[in-house]
């Protein structure tokens, strides 16, 4: 009996993973899919899809959570605390930009369907890396202290997302963004 339950649980987890991957792929292609389109892309029934995700909003939230978790894992692996703040900033941007760039369409769909506040709430795991770096830079005297840490973190992410918007609009290339972001963020963060 326990083996059957484990098998069903493993099947359910595989189905959920397949659904998240299919949804991300559909979003990356530039469409906000219906639940029927997600079910078809994941090769499951709508009933199975709804068993995992009751609404399209719940599905989008799960896709965003997954994207943030992947970014958090990548940033955690950098060991930023062992680096000088400028090198840490450089690595943080150059590691987080490709993640954001690959999830630009997910971000746009989440903004449209979940709203700014819900999207911001999902980012706490990734925000902590920026917060910790800015705190360390302020304590070391390398980063400005005339503005609050919260404001600098919010501005950091606003600049990152502005770059994503510029790439979407065709005014900035994805390849040029990291260098521009590092230069912009250094000028923003460094103590005068």
TrEMBL record:
One of its GO terms (molecular function) is transcription cis-regulatory region binding. Residues 13-71 form the HTH tetR-type domain. The keyword Hydrolase does not apply. Pfam families: TetR_N. Residues 34-53 bind DNA. Keywords: DNA-binding, Transcription, Transcription regulation. InterPro entries: Homeodomain-like_sf, HTH-type_TetR-like_transc_reg, HTH_TetR, Tet_transcr_reg_TetR-rel_C_sf. This is TetR/AcrR family transcriptional regulator. It comes from Kribbella sp. HUAS MG21.
